[in-house]
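Contributing new records

If you add data, match the layout below exactly. Sequence lines come first and carry their own label; structure lines follow with theirs. Keep one chain per record. Anything else will be rejected by the validation script.
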Amino acid sequence: MLDLLAPKAKVVKTIKLSRSTNDFLKVLNTNFKLKGEAQNESIFRVPGNFFSDLRAVGIVFGRSADPKHYKKVGFNVTVKIINSDSVELELSERIILGYFEIKAFKSVLQDRLEGLIENYT
């Protein structure tokens, strides 16, 4: 039922790190809240602005979904360790009225993914 009301948008990319996976995880842990850990996987929360999501639901009133509305929305970063210098990054977030917004939000997640790679690897 939740997937019908608020589907999850996500982008995934495998990257080769310039540092060890442990160092990369320490950097993320310093900058973002750790939500959970399992073997070879960590989930972090990048905080957002609640009001950005409210602005985005303006599509109910006939406005088109605009990627600018999602620039400050928070999201989860799942880091899956592949080996000592490679990880898979998955950025995801549930979207209210997502079927109307998913394309716009995915483009923002892709930009944020590239920013994470550039700033933290």
